[in-house]
Amino acid sequence: MMTNKFKKTFFAAAVAALSGTLAFTGCDDKKSAVAVAQSGPSEVPATVETVEYREVKIVRELPGRVDAVRLSDVSARVTGVLLERKFEEGAKVEKDQVLFQIDPAPLQAARDAAAAQVEVAKANLNGAEITFKRFSELLPTGGVSRQSYDDAMIAVDTAKAALLAAEAQLKSAEINLGYATVTAPISGIIGAALVTEGGMVSGNALTKMAVIQQMDPINFDFTQSATALLDLRKAIAAGTVEKIDENTVPVKLVFDDGSVYQHAGKLKFAEVSVDKTTGMYTLRAEFPNPDNLLLPGMFARAVLEEGVNKQAVLVPQKAVSLGTAGKATVFTVNEHGMVVPRPITVGKMEGNDWTVTSGLKPGDRIAADGLISIGMALAQNPAGVKIVAPAETPMPETAVPVRPEEAAPAESAEAGK
Length: 417
Known about the structure:
Elements (H helix, E strand, L loop, with lengths): L3 H35 L3 E4 L2 E3 L2 E23 L4 E6 L6 E2 L4 E5 L2 H34 L7 H34 L1 E3 L4 E3 L9 E2 L6 E18 H13 L2 E3 L6 E5 L10 E6 L9 E8 L11 E18 L4 E2 L5 E6 L5 E12 L2 E6 L6 E3 L3 H10 L4 E4 L15 H13 L1
Parallel strand pairs: 1-21
Antiparallel strand pairs: 2-20, 3-10, 3-15, 4-6, 4-9, 5-8, 6-7, 8-10, 10-14, 11-15, 12-13, 12-15, 13-14, 15-19, 16-17, 17-18, 18-19
C-alpha cells in the first residue's frame, strides 16, 4: 500500500507531465498557424465570372379582385302586385328581355281615365273655338262687346292648355302601364329573384327585384404602391428603364393555386389619384370571359410587364451567401486572384440569378461557386485565399474489348505447354 507521501509525489509528477504536454501542444498549434501564414494564401479552385449589365423585364405581380364591367339593379318603377317571374335564375338574359310582370289592371284603368280626360279637353277646346269664331264675326257690327270677344279668346287658350295637360297625363299613365312589364336594362347574367309572385312591390321605394352583371368581358381591379410607380418613372426619365407602351401591355391572371388564366387581358386605365390612407393607386385590366370562369369578387393576382431594365446586375444564386436579417455577401476576386468579401443588396430572383440593387458594378469579378471552401480557407488562413481555375476532370480511356476468337490462340498455346 502506498504511503501518503508517495501519493503526493506521484500526483505532482503527473500534473507536471500533463502541463508539459499541453504546453507542447499549444506551441505546436501556434507554430502551425505561423507556418500556414508564412506559406502564403490558400489556393481554392473556383469559377470566376465578370459582372456585366443585362436587360431584364420589369414584371410585377399585384393582388386584386374580379369586378363586373357593368352591374344593374332591376327595380320596380310602379307599385303593384307581382304576378309572374319570367326568367331562370342564374341564366344569361338579353337587353329588353321580359323578367317580371306586375298586375297591370290598376295601371290600365288609370290610363283609360287619362284618355277620357283628353277627350273632354278636346271637346272643351272645340266649343271655345266655335264661340270665339262667332264673336269674331259679330264684333265689327257691334253684336258683342269687346270684353266678350276677349273672354272668348282667353277661353280658347285655356282649353288648349287643358288639352296639353290631359295629353301629358295620358302619356304618363301609358308609361306606368309599360313599367308593369319589367325588362332587362342590360345583357348579362342575372342572379336570384329578390321578390316572389304575390308580393307587393313599390315604385316609390324602388323595390330591388334582381341584379344583372355583365360578365364578358370582365374587369380585374388591382392596386400598386405609389412609391413603386415613382421609382419606375425616375428610372424611365434617367434612361435606365425603357417604358412599355401602356396600350399594348399584356396582363396575365394567376389564381390562388398557381394556375394561369387561359385568356390574356389588357391594361385598361389607372387612377389619377392615390389613396391617402394606403398610399396605393388602382389599376384596371379587362379580360375575355366567354366561359364565365371569372366571377365578380374572385381574388387573383395580375402579372404585368412595366418596362425593360437595361442596366440590371445579375449574379448566380450559388455565388451569394445570405446571412441573418437578409444580409447578402459575395466573394469578389481582385486582379491578383485574391478573394475579398463584399456585402451587397439583392432584389428579386430572375430564374436562377439574384438581381443585385447595390454593391456590384460592371467589371467586378466574383467567385461563382465554391463558397464553402473559400469561407473555410479564409477562417483558417489569415494570409487570405487565392482563386485558381478548377481542375478539369480527365476523360476516361476507352477500353478496347477483346474478341473470343483473338484470345483463343493464347489459350491453346498455354495448353500446348
